[in-house]
């Protein structure tokens, strides 16, 4: 057992040993009470790596009297599933933990689903991806609960580390280790809410530390060196990555410069520069828009510079772009207006293009009535250029899509827009 990683050895053996995730399986929860009373429902556990999905599944198995099986959907075959189905027929009911359940293929589902539905197989599925996006609806419908796990709080990680240091059977308790409370706090902080990383880091620190007269001495420099990238979770292209992109955009939209830089840093540490640049460009036009039209060009230049420079230097122009967007006036009026026009079309609010707007650059256009267009440049209006009152929308589409936001540069555009409306008959 000592050859197994510390994180594996310290998995809770039953639900009373679970540390953290009290909102899901604390003593006050219905799930805890059901399991204690002998009933285990099928469920989906959703969350980032290292926050307890597998541990909870094994703890539930340890608290139940059901035969327990564990599969990983990335490499489990039809025969694996058939063996569990056979065992379910013999035993009457079994508990199956299926990791990476979002990778479950149709053949596996067809074999397993009827038995989950009739209750002979209790299914606990675990996924790092959003189950509403990536888990087959047939699976979701047969799982009574979809439980979203959270990153562990620092106090939970401290408790977990302390238990591992004290446990003489499974942990490091049989060794004499000199480690301070502040050093335990530093390890907990570095793990960034990931229990597996915390225990892996603790184990690495133990083996990297010097032994003096039978006592292992933990020093700060060892913790610092091994903690360098412990907080980075690289699931490029997964749900967490898209959550980071979403958090970045919403922080910029909310003008929170520090939060935006935090999420940008996390995204760049994950290494997908192209996805980050793509999102920054969207933000420049979606959230800054007409309030500061020059931002679009600035962000584009920053993104192109970043692609040429590559990481880590790419972070420099991107930091400039993010801060400028955070502190810029903001408007979503342009794309909101276009979306309103698109919705109007989908709702059937369409009509024939006015004849004077139709193409007249061919012989016979007059015969079709494509006449009467007034060329605005022939009608100067102050310093604006040219404008003439004529119909542009179809007869039965008398709608106003654009609603100016009175912010930044759009103030001037809004004033012109309102003034032109007063000229119309």
Automatic annotation (TrEMBL):
Please tell me whether the keyword ATP-binding is annotated for this protein.
Answer: yes
Q: Name one GO molecular function term.
A: ATP hydrolysis activity
Matching entries from InterPro entries are given as: AAA+_ATPase, AAA_assoc_2, AAA_ATPase_RarA/MGS1/WRNIP1, ATPase_AAA_core, DNA_pol3_clamp-load_cplx_C, MgsA_C, P-loop_NTPase
Q: Which family does it belong to?
A: Belongs to the AAA ATPase family. RarA/MGS1/WRNIP1 subfamily.
Q: Which UniProt keywords apply?
A: ATP-binding, Nucleotide-binding
Report any one BP term from Gene Ontology: DNA synthesis involved in DNA repair
Q: Where is the AAA+ ATPase domain?
A: 39-151
- Annotated SUPFAM superfamilies: P-loop containing nucleoside triphosphate hydrolases, post-AAA+ oligomerization domain-like
Q: Which named protein is this?
A: Replication-associated recombination protein A
On the tree of life, the source organism's domain of life is Bacteria
